[in-house]
């Protein structure tokens, strides 16, 4: 499973690294240290926490930062929070800062991209369809 540094988690949540550190220090999100001493957050823990933050406030979660505003060609980088596979179709949810995006795509596409909860992905929106990119 992928782990994220404090800085990576901050970018995915749409907040500053200091905010993520405060949340970790307060026990709101679990961290562990790698061999170099960096604090890391497991992907599944970050996915669950990103949903909690978005549901609790609809913004950055602590009220001291404005959510980012960008047109960025309709790209929403975030973290995969749910993958539901059917026989042919699949549903993928991404939490991109305060935004929850849901894409319906083929099971084959999900498997080819290797999408799973806790990994980073980018939702790209054009008209009424959402396409998922993997870095």
Offer a few descriptive terms:
three-stranded antiparallel beta sheet, five-stranded antiparallel beta sheet, 135 residues, alpha+beta
**Strand order across the largest sheet:** 6-5-4-7-8
Total beta strand runs: 8
Distance linking N and C termini: 16 Å
Shape: globular
Taking all Cα atoms into account, the compactness measure Rg is 15 Å
Structural class: alpha+beta
Number of helices: 4
User: Helical content, roughly?
Assistant: 25-40%
Mean pLDDT: 85
Biggest β-sheet strands, sense, barrel: 5 strands, antiparallel
Write down the secondary-structure element order.
EHHEEHEEEHEE
Low-confidence stretches: 59-65, 67-72
Proportion of residues in extended strands: 35-45%
Detailed description of the structure:
The chain is built from four helices and eight strands. It is an alpha+beta fold and 135 residues long. The strands form two sheets. A five-stranded antiparallel sheet has the order 6-5-4-7-8. Strands 1-3-2 form a three-stranded antiparallel sheet. The protein is globular.
Please give a quick description of this structure.
The chain is of the alpha+beta class and 135 residues long. It is 29% helix and 36% strand. The strands form 2 sheets. A 5-stranded antiparallel β-sheet has the order 6-5-4-7-8.
Task: Draw up the topology in text.
Blueprint: E1 3-5, H1 6-13, H2 17-25, E2 32-33, E3 39-42, H3 43-57, E4 75-85, E5 89-96, E6 99-106, H4 107-113, E7 120-126, E8 129-133
Antiparallel strand pairs: 1-3, 2-3, 4-5, 4-7, 5-6, 7-8
Helix pairs in contact: 1-2
């Amino acid at each position: 499973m992928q782990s994220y540094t404090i800085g990576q988690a901050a970018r995915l949540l749409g907040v500053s690294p200091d905010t993520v550190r405060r949340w970790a220090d307060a026990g709101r999100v679990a961290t562990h240290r790698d061999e170099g001493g960096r604090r890391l957050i497991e992907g599944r823990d970050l996915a669950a926490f990103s949903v909690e933050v978005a549901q609790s406030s609809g913004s950055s979660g602590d009220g001291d930062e404005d959510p980012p505003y960008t047109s960025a060609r309709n790209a929403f980088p975030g973290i995969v929070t749910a993958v539901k596979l059917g026989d042919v179709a699949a549903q993928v949810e991404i939490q991109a800062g305060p935004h929850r995006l849901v894409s319906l795509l083929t099971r084959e596409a999900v498997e080819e991209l290797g999408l799973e909860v806790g990994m980073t992905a980018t939702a790209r929106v054009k008209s009424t369809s959402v396409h998922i990119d993997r870095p």
